[in-house]
Amino acid sequence: MKGGGNMPRKYDNEFKSMILDLITKQNHSTLKTSKDFNLPIKTLEKWITAYNKDNHCFDSNYISPQAQIDKLKKEIKQKDQTIDILKKTISYISTNDQ
Predict the structure, then answer these.
(1) How far apart are CA 26 and CA 39, in angstroms?
(2) I need a labelling partner for 52 at 20 to 30 A (CA). Which of 14, 69, 93, 95 fits?
(3) What's the Cα-to-Cα distance from 82 to each of 31, 45, 70, 71, 77, rounded to whole Å?
(4) Please, what sign has the CA dihedral across residues 13, 14, 15, 17?
(5) Is the pTM of this model over 0.70?
(6) Domain boundaries, the chain
(7) Rounded to the nearest 5 degrees, what angle is found at the Cα of 37, between the Cα atoms of 32 and 51?
């Protein structure tokens, strides 16, 4: 066996989506796909599990539900700050306008 650490490889979502399409839609064998593309079977199993939970998880424009929630929370916070500023401005204008 060769020495040296095996660095985990990174796969883009387009590749993952293509692999999952082979398995889920074209009924390719998971084991054969793993061998054909030199992918660890555990990696493939993780992708399949993620896909089964949310079959859009590897779409190119995918945003996870948690990321969507975080984005919306940030937007709400910014809007709340804007509302507070507007309320203070209105209050200031109305008290200084008399």
Answers:
(1) 18
(2) 69
(3) 55, 46, 19, 17, 9
(4) positive
(5) no
(6) 10-62, 64-98
(7) 80
Query: Who's near 41: CB < 8 A, 6+ residues apart?
Result: 30, 31, 34
**pLDDT averaged over every residue in the chain:** 87
Percent of residues, the chain, with pLDDT higher than 70: 90
Q: Tokens representing 12?
A: 């883009």
Report in angstroms the alpha-carbon separations of 71 from 67, 78, 81: 6, 11, 16
According to the model, what pLDDT value does residue 34 have? 94
Distance (Å, whole) CA 52 – CA 6: 28
Q: What percent of the chain has pLDDT over 90?
A: 62
Q: Which two tokens stand for residue 45?
A: 């199993």
Closest residue by Cα to residue 48 from 25, 66, 65, 71: 25
| Residue in this structure with the two tokens 């009924």, named with its chain if needed | 27
